[in-house]
Structures are given as C-alpha cells and as structure tokens.
Amino acid sequence: MTDFPVTIFHNPACGTSRNTLAMIEAAGYAPQVVEYLSAGWTEPQLRDLFARAGLTPRTAMRDKGTPAAELGLTAPDATDDAILAAMVEHPILVNRPIVVTPKGAALCRPSEQVFALLDRVPAEFVKEDGEVVRNP
C-alpha cells in the first residue's frame, strides 16, 4: 500500500461504485471510503468537489432511482442552488462514485475512469460482470 491519498465517495449498493473501489484496491491503494448516503453532504463540500471535478450540480445529479423528478430538479429552470440544497437533503441525488486524489477529482462513470487519477494501475482488472479492463 502507499501513502498516495485516495478518497472515494462510495455507494456500496452501486455496481459502478463497487468496481471503482475494487480497481483502486487492485492498484495497491488503501482508499478513504466515504459512504455518503450515511455520512451526508454539506453544500461547501459539494461545491468544492464539483469544482475540482469540472462538474455542475446538474451534471453531477443522479435522476435514476432518486426523487429528482418529483422534486422538480430535472426541469430546465431548476437552479444550481436548488439542486445543491436538494443534494444536501437527499444524498442519493449525487451521482457516484466520485474519486479524489492528488491528480484531481472525477465522477468515475465508467469505473475505469479512475485510472487517470492514480499513479499506478493494475495491468488487468475483471469487473463484477466479467468485463475485462486491460491497461497499457
């Protein structure tokens, strides 16, 4: 393991999030795992994460399996402030996983996007569904 800090904002019920965490661990890292559904979010934390990852509240919002539509957040006139406030109240609205390292931050969908944030990667990784990811 290494002291290269890796933080993953993780939802263990999400296959993409589980694969991303497993990829980080397969690369030899011991990440800080933040289960954000129980830990929750703060507005300043989300603003910082989104700025670092080049996201907007709208592009970071998950609508599938969330109350986004019923809260009116999928409407074109929903403001960033309204979306952020809803994300703080309903953590499930934030898409996952978000990974932060010294190389930057990213919403890792698909999961192999995490490799751009790491100093080293496994030569090969097999996802839960059997898909093989090979790295040069």
What does this structure look like?
This protein is an alpha+beta fold. The chain is 30% helix and 16% strand. The protein has helices at 15-26, 36-39, 43-53, 57-60, 80-89; strands spanning 7-10, 32-35, 98-101, 104-107, 124-126, 132-134. It has a four-stranded mixed beta sheet with strand order 2-1-3-4, with helices on both faces. It has a two-stranded antiparallel ribbon with strand order 5-6. It is globular, with a radius of gyration of 15 Å. 35% of the residues are buried.
Compose a concise summary of this entry.
With 136 residues, the protein is α+β, with helices and mostly antiparallel strands. Helices cover 30% and strands 16% of the residues. It has helices at residues 15-26, 36-39, 43-53, 57-60, 80-89, and strands spanning 7-10, 32-35, 98-101, 104-107, 124-126, 132-134.
Kindly list the characteristics that best describe this protein:
6 strands; two-stranded antiparallel sheet; 136 residues; globular; 4-stranded mixed β-sheet; 30% helix; alpha+beta
Structure class: alpha+beta
Q: Ranges with pLDDT <50 over ≥5 residues?
A: none
Mean pLDDT: 95
What is the tally of helical segments? 5
Overall 3D geometry? globular
Estimate what percentage of residues fall within beta strands. Answer: 15-25%
| Spatial extent as radius of gyration | 15 Å
What is the makeup of the main sheet?
4 strands, mixed
Fraction of residues in helices? 25-40%
Q: How many strand segments?
A: 6
Order of helices and strands: EHEHHHHEEEE
Kindly report how far apart the N and C termini lie: 21 Å
Major β-sheet strand ordering: 2-1-3-4
